[in-house]
Specification:
By secondary structure, the protein is of the alpha+beta class. It folds into 2 domains: about 230 residues, Rossmann fold (3-Layer(aba) Sandwich), CATH 3.40.50.300; about 100 residues, OB fold (Dihydrolipoamide Acetyltransferase, E2P) (Beta Barrel), CATH 2.40.50. Helix content is about 25%, strand content about 30%. It is built from 9 helices and 18 strands. Strand 9 and strand 10 form a beta hairpin. The chain is elongated.
């Protein structure tokens, strides 16, 4: 399958990709997740053969692809703007790659029919793509990418141009389509929720390196460092110094001054702690927003630090409360 080894790339004299390596297995979906400018799309283009790395190699089944041009790699690439041909209808867009491969017409008809059925758009074959909604265009672009039967499928922010509601609606549908294809998939995004909903594995890119590689559950439960926890929005990150200043009771930190303590909002307990092995705070309710089964609540301590907690009931703004985290629920992370 795909092996990426020691990829280096600079941008305006500064390292963009700094020795990236990873493997991708058959049928596996991985998400490249990172902030804008972290090199995700550049890495995708290097794998596709559309851009050259300054050093390193891309292998497929052990074969170095350095001398293989993009159109001969057998990789499918879907961009954020979908790059559909606006002057062609749905059928003509999907059929494009198959005609480039010079497939027999009968085979082409069969494949396009299957792809239209897979995206539930059989009746849209003759519809101009300019008359489609954003979600429909996304489906057509995916069908076009899959029609030539690529051995690897790469998607670059395919839901990025859609509004949040539609993105959430299409995430499950997209995951099922990718699962059904049985293709290895690289999915580029900066959206944590999207990545968690789609991928088997996540590669977190930061400062040109992969800072963590693991399943969504592994990243959620065991972030590699404070930056990953902050990027993923996992909760409150407090320095040992701020912890000492704000907590009215704390489990003595066994950490350096540079380390951060992760206090997850849903682990917060309201009231007085009955044990010495906890981190307890007292503060004033800033706001309380209903999020479905729970309330997302802001608590400001006397020292001015704002903590995010989740509560099962509505809290009154200005109300003074105590809240604590059991010591076993708190994680110490390197900066």
């Amino acid at each position: 399958m795909l092996s990426v080894r020691d990829i280096y790339k600079t941008y305006e004299g500064a390292p963009l990709l700094n020795g990236l390596s990873f493997d991708l297995a058959q049928g596996e979906i991985i998400a490249l997740l990172g902030t804008s400018g972290s090199g995700k799309s550049t890495l995708l283009r290097i794998i596709a053969g559309l851009e050259e790395a300054e050093s390193g190699a891309v292998y497929w089944d052990g074969v170095d692809l350095a001398q293989t041009p993009a159109h001969q790699r057998g990789f499918g690439l879907m961009f954020q703007d979908y790059a559909l041909f606006p002057h062609r209808n749905v059928y003509e867009n999907i059929v494009f790659g198959l005609r480039m491969q010079k497939r027999p017409e009968a085979e082409i008809e069969k494949i396009v029919g299957e792809r239209l059925k897979s995206i539930r758009m059989e009746s849209f074959a003759k519809r101009p793509v300019t008359e489609l909604s954003g979600g429909e265009q996304q489906r057509v672009a995916l069908a076009r990418a899959l029609a030539p039967d690529p051995r690897l499928l790469m998607l670059d922010e395919p839901l990025g141009a859609l509004d949040r509601g539609l993105r959430e609606e299409l995430t499950k549908e997209l995951r099922q389509t990718l699962r059904d294809s049985h293709k290895p998939v690289i999915y580029v995004t900066h959206d944590r929720q999207e990545a968690f909903g789609l991928a088997d594995r996540l590669l977190i890119l930061h400062d040109g390196v992969i800072v963590q590689d693991g399943s969504p559950q592994e990243l959620f439960e065991r972030p590699a460092n404070a930056w990953v926890a902050e990027f993923l929005g996992l909760g409150n990150l407090i320095s040992a110094n701020d912890l000492t200043k704000n907590a009215i009771q704390e489990e003595k930190p066994k950490a350096s001054d540079d380390d951060r303590w992760l206090l997850r909002p849903f682990d917060a307990q309201i009231g007085e702690s009955q044990t010495d092995t906890s981190f307890q705070f007292e503060g004033e309710i800033l706001d309380c927003v209903y999020m479905g089964e729970r309330y997302q609540t802001g608590l400001r301590t006397a020292q001015g630090t704002v903590l995010s907690i989740e509560t099962p009931h509505l809290c009154v703004m200005g109300e003074k409360i105590k809240v604590y985290w059991p010591a076993e629920k708190v994680q110490c992370l390197k900066s």
